[in-house]
Amino acid sequence: MALATLVHPTGSHPASWLHPSAYPGASMDIGYYRDMARLAERGMFDLFFIADTPAARTSQLEAYARFPLFMNVFEPLTLLAALAGATTYIGLGGTASTSFFEPYNVARQFASLDHISGGRAAWNVVTSANDFAARNFGLDRLPPHGDRYERAREFVDVVRKLWDTWEDGAFLRDRESGLFFDPAKQHPVAHEGRHFRVNGALNIERVPQGQPVIIQAGASDTGREFAAETAELVFASDSTLEAGQRFYADLKGRMARHGRPPEALKVLAGLPAIVADSEQEAEDTYQTLQALIHPDVGRMRLGMDLEADLSGLPLDEPIPPERIPASANLHKAYFEHILGMIREGLTLRQLYMRYERGNRTIRGTPKQVADHMEEWFTSGAADGFMLTFSLLPRGMADFIEKVVPELQRRGLVKREWRGRTLRENVGLERPGHRRQ
Amino acid sequence: MALATLVHPTGSHPASWLHPSAYPGASMDIGYYRDMARLAERGMFDLFFIADTPAARTSQLEAYARFPLFMNVFEPLTLLAALAGATTYIGLGGTASTSFFEPYNVARQFASLDHISGGRAAWNVVTSANDFAARNFGLDRLPPHGDRYERAREFVDVVRKLWDTWEDGAFLRDRESGLFFDPAKQHPVAHEGRHFRVNGALNIERVPQGQPVIIQAGASDTGREFAAETAELVFASDSTLEAGQRFYADLKGRMARHGRPPEALKVLAGLPAIVADSEQEAEDTYQTLQALIHPDVGRMRLGMDLEADLSGLPLDEPIPPERIPASANLHKAYFEHILGMIREGLTLRQLYMRYERGNRTIRGTPKQVADHMEEWFTSGAADGFMLTFSLLPRGMADFIEKVVPELQRRGLVKREWRGRTLRENVGLERPGHRRQ
Ligand SMILES: Cc1cc2nc3c(=O)[nH]c(=O)nc-3n(C[C@H](O)[C@H](O)[C@H](O)COP(=O)(O)O)c2cc1C
Ligand SMILES: Cc1cc2nc3c(=O)[nH]c(=O)nc-3n(C[C@H](O)[C@H](O)[C@H](O)COP(=O)(O)O)c2cc1C
């Protein structure tokens, strides 16, 4: 199975930076990231992944000051390039938004990262769900969901054409003939689309991986169709085995339409995990973190996904029905999940304490976590996992010390690297060059 | 004096890659760049600089196959981030174009590089003079010179505001109060201009250098005015001492108008140098390289700056007058320089063999090169130098072995690093934060 990890500086828990064992300077310490990437590599993780949004919040700062998600972080491409030299095998994945960037720059930077890392680059294609980002790029707000995905499809199409500007072996570097490259092996892009006009050639040769790996995490119908057409790694976020199996089957089922075999895409199930020698110990770690959530942060995170203003409401009463919108506009799945809990009659405090974005954190022994992973892997719900750790680097170190050896014993995780590229290690074929 | 070097993979000579001592794989070998950056650092260079244009040529490929400038290179930001971990003191400068990129991304990537490198980032602001680049970003051709500089001014203004999103010390990381940052120290940008609308906050804290260093190399009147207003390092390219002094005095003279003291900007004179123990040996190295220039390359490079099609013309006759345009559209100075040589009655071959873009390569002994540098430095033509080497890494190694110690003996080059940031080492003040 493929192992990936999504890294937030001090961990994925909203209060992680407040934990006594956390290093509050983490987000701006390149040495810290280097150590963590090396740790993940020693633990046989295939992918070290940096999520991103190109914006810092400018409102609700009282709450964000206590929950500084994406407020002060390295930019992913520069970060990953810096990590390339500190690691040898682990894949280096990062997010870049198709809504605000230019295809030429994205194509070029990921290609450059693939060369710098010797074939370990992966691009997480997102359309961004954040009006703050839109305002940094000349817009008042985010374009509608469908338009964003339309642009994303065209964006990826252009990027892939750019990646195939040069055939493999185009650069001869032949002093005898005096030819540095073979002019016949350049295939300039001539793209005139609804969103982009790109007519030219990428100024970097075809990468070690043929093309960098494409990651996608869309959950909507449009998002899934896009993933089936174009993604090679997909981050899933279902919380039950049945939902995971449905998602897996649905996604793989869509691929034939696009002429792709199911193994050309690996589903990585999201897995927030706290591992300890006893279940109680894992639970204690979780509860220690939960107790550190400030009510302002709880309110804000819940309100964001409920798309409601919860300020001023008493914590120990249910949310008044008139504050709850009739339907969701941003993350439908999160919204429905919260509505379900509201129907159970929970108070505001109980709601935000129980609510986790995406799937529930599994708290358990190494055996329990390994069993969970084995079950998902062997019953058609996942080709691998995207691990997130509430507390870093401790959570990752625990997982590597306790769970990875168990998975290796079961033959589920490799003991040796299969190769030097991300594609080789997760079992994705190197794409052939398509003449343009 | 400040020392900088502009690095092209195998050297700045158009035929460098053909030289027997060159490493033809240089442009895609990160280890090669790492070694070169370390070499420059050992030689007390303050700045390792990567020029750039976001395009590969798609025409005249027969000539470009023999002179592969920018056809296959790392992208500068990812490259510099990768070099940060391999070096400790040397500044890391790169080009990003204001004509095709977005201020938010540029601000963020250079800020990230500054944090990753501990205060060593520098941005060379260019407007690009290349229609191939324009076509990669939705345009048919480059906007006019004046428009490009207007956009560049606004671009830099926005970037600087973004860099001052957060005051120094805004990030408290204080577990006791539970405040990661002080909301009062965030100053979002509210920019509505002719070219950009940016309303938001940079998601990275103020950098070690306060702001990354701004480099500029404009030679036109508009370019100089822009430099006087905003640049901190300026690459000059005059070929005589008198011209250098005029440029220096002109540029520094323009600064008062913008409320800047002259020492806030350092002029680095371009210096292509070949050093050897005897003048003859240096000349031989130069002539060996010259002899490797293929006639197609000579024609193409000359034709580019003469803005004329020279194909099919006999090499050993002068260029027929009807092929020569009445005036220049791109690089006026290069054009005039070629016209001057044409008036001397040179043949096409003599022209391209004698023509160098920018200033003439100095070929000499360590003493001759050091004398040249001392003269320019002490007579008001330069605060430092931007060295280019015909052949890399050899040319740089020779310079470091033979010239740097001589400059140190004369007290012109430091023996110890003054600090860990580029600003400290070249003597530029850390800019204070301007409230927005
Ligand atoms: C593991 C994971 C990582 C994600 N990373 C990012 C990210 O870095 N940036 C971003 O804007 N969205 C990110 N997303 C959001 C998805 O790209 C997507 O927008 C979301 O799942 C909603 O699906 P939809 O776009 O199909 O509506 C991530 C989602 C998951 C599950
Ligand atoms: C040392 C040096 C380095 C330069 N690097 C670049 C570069 O990397 N990219 C680019 O487009 N232009 C580069 N230029 C060109 C200048 O930015 C500028 O466009 C040129 O000198 C003409 O001046 P003008 O823009 O004022 O007309 C460089 C010039 C010099 C002298």
UniProtKB/TrEMBL annotation, chains A, B:
Residues 22-381 form the Luciferase-like domain. Pfam families: Bac_luciferase. The keyword Disulfide bond does not apply. Keywords: Flavoprotein, FMN, Monooxygenase, Oxidoreductase. InterPro entries: Diverse_substr_monoxygenases, Luciferase-like_dom, Luciferase-like_sf, NTA_MOA. Transmembrane segments: none annotated. CDD domains: Nitrilotriacetate_monoxgenase. Belongs to the NtaA/SnaA/DszA monooxygenase family. This is LLM class flavin-dependent oxidoreductase. It comes from Belnapia arida.
